[in-house]
């Protein structure tokens, strides 16, 4: 009977296989970037071969980890590391699948006209990959502490490409439809690669620090307040809710038009009576919003989200309507009685919403 290797040796073997797997995927990402810069179909064919190698490595890693759990019964850091490696191998395999799928699409067609945007997404994604790689195999955890910021840049570029694709679809010809669908498909795969790199980074963080001491802050979901009066009512609603949920979610304000005359700081004295500090939220236009990380849309008054935006809001995003929050910003600014009525109605709504968010947070922990 062959002697069972020590736990340290077995874990080292897992990480060695995982590193080989990551190197193969990184080669695929680099090949895609090179193809966008200097097209060469022969390079892309090699990515298909690499994908088979990646699949075989994932199976080998699964087998080794199962052997570790069965023969070593690891605890503490070693258990977290073994579990993380299994999860990471799965993430890397999915990244490899996305890279292969992109290569196949490029082999069967020309580089899209939006070459520069795709290149930016590719470079951001490769940066995310290299940061997670460095954190895992070089031990530099500072590389992944703010990894979600880079992921947000990928999301923004995907939004830009989806907007371009929607405009192309309006032209209606078969070639335009095929082109638009190709843009959407390719941008979705790049966004998926970025998300999987973030998942990889989070597994490294948990393995090294445990759940209680993890260094990467869990990505906050966003609550988006929307109104049709330049964002003034939405800003006030967000300010009232802010103190109760700031550690759980991020708040955003969206409007169809920019504020012209009103400013939330004009309400400082009124809000101070309720021990509320006005918060200055950047007011985004609808067309610039990325809805991917929106947990809830809180729609005030008579605001209606355009049909083309509704089509890109994720189906899991909850939409809440507060039709009674339908005040004239000028009137509540100049009439203390009207402002009090506004705050009383809004406070009931925001308190109820804060309770819902708190319960949602408890269930997810």
Automatic annotation (TrEMBL):
Q: Where is the PhoU domain?
A: 18-105, 119-204
**Could you state one GO biological process linked to this protein?**
intracellular phosphate ion homeostasis
Offer one Pfam family short name for this entry. Answer: PhoU
Annotated family: Belongs to the PhoU family.
**Protein's name according to its UniProt entry:** PhoU domain-containing protein
Provide the species name: Silvanigrella aquatica
């Amino acid at each position: 009977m062959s002697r069972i290797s020590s736990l340290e040796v077995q874990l080292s073997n897992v990480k060695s296989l995982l590193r080989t797997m990551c190197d193969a995927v990184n080669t695929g990402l680099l090949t895609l970037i090179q193809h966008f810069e200097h097209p060469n179909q022969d390079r892309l064919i090699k990515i298909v071969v690499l994908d088979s190698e990646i699949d075989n490595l994932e199976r080998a890693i699964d087998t080794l980890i199962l052997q570790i759990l069965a023969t070593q019964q690891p605890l503490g850091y070693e258990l977290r590391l073994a579990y993380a490696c299994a999860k990471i191998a799965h993430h890397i395999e999915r990244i490899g699948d996305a890279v292969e799928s992109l290569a196949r699409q490029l082999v069967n067609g020309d580089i899209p006209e939006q070459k520069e945007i795709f290149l930016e997404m590719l470079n951001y994604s490769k940066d995310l990959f290299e940061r997670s790689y460095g954190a895992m195999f070089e031990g530099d955890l500072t590389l992944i502490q703010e990894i979600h910021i880079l992921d947000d840049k990928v999301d923004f570029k995907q939004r830009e490409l989806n907007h371009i694709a929607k405009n192309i679809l309006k032209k209606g010809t078969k070639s335009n439809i095929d082109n638009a669908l190709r843009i959407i498909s390719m941008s979705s795969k790049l966004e998926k690669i970025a998300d999987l790199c973030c998942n990889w980074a989070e597994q490294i963080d948990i393995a090294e620090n445990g759940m209680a001491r993890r260094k990467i802050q869990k990505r906050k979901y966003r609550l988006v307040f929307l109104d049709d009066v330049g964002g003034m009512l939405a800003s006030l609603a967000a300010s009232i809710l802010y103190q109760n949920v700031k550690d759980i979610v991020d708040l955003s304000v969206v409007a169809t038009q920019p504020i012209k005359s009103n400013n939330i700081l004009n309400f400082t004295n009124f809000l101070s009576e309720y021990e509320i500090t006005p918060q200055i939220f950047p007011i985004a236009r609808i067309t610039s919003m990325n809805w991917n990380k929106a947990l809830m849309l809180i729609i005030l008054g008579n605001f209606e989200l355009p049909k083309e935006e509704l089509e890109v809001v994720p189906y899991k995003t909850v939409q809440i309507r507060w039709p009674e929050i339908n005040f004239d910003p000028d009137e509540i600014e100049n009439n203390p009685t009207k402002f009090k009525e506004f705050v009383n109605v809004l406070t009931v709504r925001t308190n109820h919403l804060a309770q819902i968010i708190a319960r949602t947070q408890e269930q997810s922990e």
